[in-house]
Amino acid sequence: MADDLDPAPILDEIVQLADEAKVAIRNLSRSKFEAAARTEGPQGVIAHAAPLHPVDLEDLVGSTAEPAFLLLVDGVTDPGNLGALLRTAECAGVTGVVLPRHRAAHVTPTVTKAAAGAIEHLSMAAVSGLPSAMATLSELGVWTVGLDVAAERELWGMDMAVDPVALVLGAEGRGLSRLVRQRCDLVVTVPMAGSLNSLNVSAAGALACFEVARQRRAHRTET
To answer: What would be the CATH architecture of the domain defined by 57-222?
Structure first.
């Protein structure tokens, strides 16, 4: 904790929780604190957590009693976008996230901050290449649905209430890579009504994730 913080109830709560969990607290000068934070605009408290343990791709499919609801991220390089996607995924009930090991953002301090705690609740698999991972998912019975501005079919027309599904989101600017797009079982778009023809990847991901969540909630209610 930075040693120049003004008194606040939330700080007292953090100290109490740390004491109950037998977590040591260190007070640092502001300069040392900001050097340790490694993010812009740290808010005065840093928690050092154990490393994340990636899971195998196959384990993501059978990790819950409900049909798999996965998010595949194809080459997103902006850590803010990735963090926002992970936060949305956790809130929408995504059961697992697949990230490529190369040419993409990984779970860094900046991503962790933007995810607002979501990384502690999401199972994540790191793969050498998304096309091969998608082939494996197909063998496991998972339907892969890519989002692309040039697609002819609309997201709202999809039936994603029952079957295992993996949403595939492309990188900022270029969208889905060619091989990833070819491996998708279906490619859909979010219909636009304005002058611009595309959304930020985190916004598009939020719409798609919550459309799946909406359909599954409606199906559970009906049954």
So the answer is: 3-Layer(aba) Sandwich (3.40)
